[in-house]
Amino acid sequence: MxxxxxxxxxxxIANKPSKRKKFIKHSKPKKRSCGIATRKCLxxxxxxxxxxxxxxxxxxxxxxxxxxxxxxxxYGHEV
Length: 79
Known about the structure:
It contains three helices and two strands, in the order H-H-E-E-H. It is mainly α. The protein folds into two domains: about 1-30; about 35-79, CATH 4.10.830.10. Strands 1-2 form a two-stranded antiparallel sheet.
């Protein structure tokens, strides 16, 4: 269950306190300490193809778009 759908369901059962309490107890998304869901791209929010090196926190597509601005360049190509 995604965070978005979790919040949507909480709104639907807002007037039923007993159901809301039970739902929160059993369906709350857990805090992640490891794995793919702990890091996401700061620019677009994707989880896959994440570049963490040098503290970039970008996916590979965003990195390719911003590489020149960040000071990276391809080897073997004149700038």
